[in-house]
Amino acid sequence: MTEDTFRLRYVGARFQNARLPVDVLSDLPAFRDLLVAFAKDEWRNLNSKRQRVPKGFDKSLTFDLVNISDGSAIPALNWNREAAQHLLPGFTDELQLIVHSSYDDITRLIDDAGMEKYPKSLASEHIRALNRLGTGLRDNERIEFLGTKGNDGNVVYLDTTRRKRLITRVRETYQTRFESVGSLISNSVEGFVVVRTDEHGNIQIPVDTDQIVEEFDGSLESDVQFDLQVELDNEDRLRRVVSVYDIALIDAQIGAELVKRRNRLAELRTFESGWNDGAGEPISSSALTMAERFLSKRPSLCAAYKIFPTENGGVLFEFENRDWDFSIEFAADGTIEMYGLRLDQADVMEPHHFSQEDEFMKEFDLRVGRQ
Q: Would strands 348-354 and 336-342 be described as parallel, antiparallel, or unpaired?
């Protein structure tokens, strides 16, 4: 890190060759806003007799994206010292100390979260910025704050686990994507439907009134597929629906096939040790949960799914799609393996192993298509 430049290293397959996907660009203004929030605290600590920061203080903390280096994507953010001098002449050196001290405050907050240490509270300004920082990260991805050293002697980093810990502890809620299937139990001309779900009970989902009249009216107890951004508390209880990406009735025939596949999974749940001539293990709850979640996320192919138990306590899905014969195994430990064979050619999909559901769904949609 040079004197006034801060480098954030994005680690993960998506960021190789200095690629920075647009869905993580919001991290950069969020980082700046979080630093400004801590900088205001630093200013007040240094100037205890002043209740407010000087006019122009916020705008004096301007950062420019000056480079994205290779080695994963490493955006370099440079504090604009000239802008600070123009807005607050005579305060530049003090502001420089404040900027670096505030950066230390941010990295200490994140590093402490890795050791289950949290502040008792944060001001709303800090929380708003913190809630936006890292929102585009996926499992197995992280942001490293280059030039720092954490409690374990390694570079300080933010990943989805630390982010969730921080946000739930200082704000008691966090936002996440929620895709599933439920039953329509109510609709309203005031612009919402109520869907019964296994994961979060009854959810009130905002829907355009025209869609309610044209699609949902008269369809109570029908299956509904939805894709939402939701806010959950630290016990993973739903607080509210933040955004609606998609919601639609499931075709009755698809719904009937979905019921059949769910019944098949319920049947597998009853398998006891030795079910396969003395060799089969009971089907694990982790495997069944992952399989049920998969059905809820991609129900349109239900009619093609053939579901089998595996001897080691897993669940195997086999299906044909687009001239491919695919297999998906939900293992007893909750991990996932996907592989396939093209029926009309010699192409094969070598086994891909996934420890995170998001990565598996991304590969599934790439291979099969979002249906």
A: antiparallel
| Continuous segment of H or E residues that includes residue 249 | strand 238-249
Distance between CA atoms of residues 356 and 336, nearest Å: 8
Long-range contacts at 361-364 (CB < 8 A, ≥ 24 apart): 361/297, 363/338, 364/298, 364/328, 364/338
Rounded to 5 degrees, φ, ψ at 215 are -115, -40
Residue with tokens 């994963």: 72
Q: Which helix (H) or strand (E) holds 69?
A: strand 63-69
Give the C-alpha distances (Å, rounded to integers) separating 292 from 19, 107, 287, 299.
Answer: 34, 39, 9, 10
CA atoms of 93 and 227, how far apart (whole Å): 49
Q: Which parts of 1-91 fold into alpha helices (H)?
A: 27-46, 57-60, 81-87
Note down pLDDT in tens along the chain; length 371 residues. Answer: 456 899 999 999 899 888 888 888 999 999 999 999 999 888 888 887 776 787 888 888 889 898 888 878 999 999 888 888 887 777 788 888 999 999 999 999 999 999 999 887 788 888 889 989 998 898 889 999 999 999 999 999 999 999 988 888 887 677 888 889 999 999 887 899 999 998 899 999 999 998 898 888 888 998 999 999 998 876 678 989 999 999 999 988 998 999 999 999 999 999 999 999 888 999 999 999 999 999 999 998 999 999 999 999 999 999 998 889 999 999 999 899 999 999 888 789 999 999 888 889 989 998 887 65
User: How many CB atoms are located within 10 Å of the residue 150 CB?
Assistant: 17
Whose structure tokens read 């996320």? Answer: 297
Q: Can you tell me the distance from the alpha carbon of 280 to that of 285, in angstroms, rounded to the nearest whole number?
A: 15
